[in-house]
Design brief:
The protein is built from 39 helices and no strands. The protein is mostly helical and 650 residues long. The longest helix has 14 residues. The C terminus is likely disordered.
């Protein structure tokens, strides 16, 4: 006769599906179906991980068993509900609840709340909440905590807060749950309010706040919460390290990691990924190699996320061979592994190696294609970038905005107008939203290819015209000789209220003034950028104004401007002034500037020729002779080249 004790003994020795079915048959024959406790023992086993290894569909087996039990209790039903949730079948939980042969208890509704959270279904969650209240469980703190988690997971933070505020009692889990809801929603103000009111700030609460502050760039607040914490755990330390790393404070991140190790905390996968990322972005290879050694001593060397972080670190720090050794030793590589390795080759200029690896990548995703295309563009292989783009389309992969911007840049670099128009047509056909970034790329391409009408048409289609769009039009019009139109667009930009001029804008308008010889306007724009927009002129702004003044004959003013520059003048600025001296016959300034240029760039034959001509115009023949002798010794003519490449053909 099978008893509960014998049933437990048989189940503990069960190692096969056949054995389990024999136990099941004995259970039915023994009459234990009337014993809810005995049934619960068998249900517990059939819903366990052990049964999952024996049966192909263990939940179906459990459901059939539950239907055979004569008087199942809530525990039996809850066991099956938990199994459905654990096996990734939350959609079955509410139908099972609706057909439950027993009344629910205090443990039923938290399981159902977790199922609603897994499905992200706030509507079902509210129905469940209503049922729980009607059955008298509305004040159960365990259920209220589960409901708060459910509402938070469904994005209904207001509902979660209502549950919290209506609770007659709160425990530590209640406080942590409502805090986690605000942290998840990114609501700093409410999270800070809850954190301040917490009777006891657990390590989990501190970790949540540090992580939230880190995501919002509030590093000082994160450090204060960390420093004032009474309780810390490994997650708290990891959150602080990640906060510093995320916000570009890599030395501080490594300092916190050192303190963590000094206090004897063990390292885990999450903290090592953050620390390796800090080493990567600080480009301090020595720290990265130390972390690599620590990873293997901690037994984390085979963890995929750690391997990927190390591959990315070595690739970024120009040790692509070390990255490849790690890549080749990886047992289970993912897309990130392949993409990091390809990006590492491209960053190091090894395009052929990148192409070879890309060609054997088993399952290329959008990032893979985008990485390859942008890497080719950055390595001056724009034709290859367009070929990869053609292959991407042939494989049926729809590019994202980042990829399209890279492809348009390739067309711009090649002056490949036909291909640029083809890409624009593709964008229209597939109804891509013309964002600021995408619109700016198209405008720049059309402007540099001389298609002004097409560029202005794109500009008009961009709904929110940010500063980059205006800059592309202003600079493009000036570059194409439409100076008046360029300056008119600047006035429209100021009046638009949607964009503020920046350094690039003023480079464009000053270049326009230079091309048209608008001296007074150039002076005014140079003052405007400083007085109205508080933009400190850079060397390009000074260079434009120096060239403008010099061309117009204001040679002394141009020289004074160069002398007043807060940075060292570059060769183009001095060269523009020398050209102005030669053009306007100012030998005195020309001689000074020419000598300066010969010192800065002794191998530039043009500057030496101009200085020689200035000496000749003054009858300084010995100086001419000495300079030409020097030129014979030092100057090598640079080979000419064309900046216009032949169009890429698809």
């Amino acid at each position: 006769m099978l008893t509960v004790s014998l049933l437990d003994a048989h189940l503990s020795r069960c190692r096969s599906a056949r054995h389990l079915l024999q136990i099941h048959a004995q259970f039915l024959a023994s009459g234990l179906l009337a014993d809810a406790f005995a049934a619960s023992r068998l249900l517990l086993f059939t819903t366990s991980a052990a049964a999952g290894r024996l049966l192909p569909r263990p939940l179906d087996h459990s459901l059939r068993l539950l239907r055979l039990v004569r008087s199942p209790n809530a525990f039996c039903c809850n066991t099956v509900l938990k199994a459905a949730l654990r096996q990734g079948l939350p959609h079955l939980c509410l139908p099972l609840y609706a057909s439950m042969p027993a009344l629910p208890d205090a443990y039923t509704y938290p399981i159902l709340a977790a199922a609603c959270a897994a499905r992200g279904d706030a509507g079902e969650g509210r129905q469940l909440h209503s049922h729980a209240v009607r059955h008298g469980f509305g004040d159960d703190v365990y259920l209220r905590n589960a409901l708060m988690r459910m509402y938070s997971a469904c994005g209904c933070v207001v509902d979660a807060r209502r549950v919290f505020d209506e609770g007659p009692v709160w425990d530590a889990v209640s406080w942590n749950t409502i805090l986690a809801a605000y942290v998840r929603a990114g609501d700093v103000e409410q999270a800070v309010g809850v954190f301040a009111r917490m009777p006891e700030r657990s390590a989990a609460a501190v970790s949540s706040m540090v992580a939230l502050f880190g995501r919002c760039g509030m590093v000082d607040e994160a450090k204060r919460a960390f420093d004032e914490a009474e309780h810390r755990d490994a997650f708290t330390w990891t959150a602080m390290i990640s906060c510093f790393e995320r916000n570009g404070q890599f030395v501080e991140a490594l300092g916190v990691f050192s303190d963590m190790r000094g206090e004897g905390w063990p390292v885990d996968e999450a903290v090592m990924v953050s620390v390796i990322a800090a080493c990567t972005r600080s480009e301090v290879m020595q720290n990265g190699e130390v972390c690599h050694g620590m990873v293997f001593r901690a037994g984390l060397g085979l963890r995929l996320n750690v391997q990927n972080a190390l591959i990315h670190m070595y690739s970024s720090c120009l040790d692509v061979s070390a990255a490849r050794r790690l890549f080749d030793s990886g047992e289970s590589l993912d897309h990130f592994s392949w993409n990091s390795m390809i990006a590492g080759y491209l960053k190091n200029g090894r395009v052929e190696d990148a192409k070879a690896l890309f060609s054997v990548m088993p399952d290329k995703d959008n990032v893979s294609w985008s990485t390859m295309i942008s890497g080719c563009v950055q390595n001056n292989q724009s034709s290859e970038a367009l070929a990869v783009f053609d292959s991407m389309k042939a494989h049926g992969i729809r590019p994202d905005e980042v990829t399209l911007v890279s492809v348009i840049s390739a067309c711009t670099n090649l002056s490949a107008l036909a291909q640029g128009k083809s890409v624009h047509k593709y964008i229209r056909e597939y109804r891509y939203n013309i964002t600021i970034v995408l619109g700016t790329s198209l405008i720049d391409m059309y402007m540099k290819c001389g298609c002004l009408d097409a560029a202005l048409e794109v500009f008009d289609t961009v709904e929110v015209k940010g500063t980059p769009c205006w800059n592309a039009v202003i600079v493009g019009l000036a570059m194409n000789g439409l100076v008046t139109k360029s300056l008119d667009m600047f006035s429209e930009m100021e009046a638009s209220g949607t964009a503020v001029p920046n350094e690039i804008t003023f480079t464009g308008v000053l270049s326009a003034c230079r091309h048209a010889g608008l001296v007074e306007e150039g002076r005014q724009f140079f003052k405007l950028m400083q007085n109205k927009y508080q933009i400190v002129p850079n060397i390009r702004h000074y260079g434009c104004l120096v060239d403008l003044l010099g061309r117009a004959g204001y040679v002394k003013e141009a020289e004074d401007l160069i002398q007043s520059m807060p940075m060292s003048p570059d060769v183009p600025a001095w060269g523009a002034l020398l050209g102005a001296c030669w053009k306007h016959g100012d030998s005195e300034v020309g001689e000074r500037v020419g000598r300066k240029l010969v010192e800065l760039d002794p191998h530039h034959d043009g500057f030496q020729t101009m200085l020689s001509n200035i000496y000749a115009s003054e009858g300084m023949w010995q100086c001419v002779k000495d300079l030409r002798g020097s030129m014979k010794q030092h100057v090598a003519k640079a080979a000419g080249y064309s900046v216009v490449q032949p169009s890429h053909s698809s």
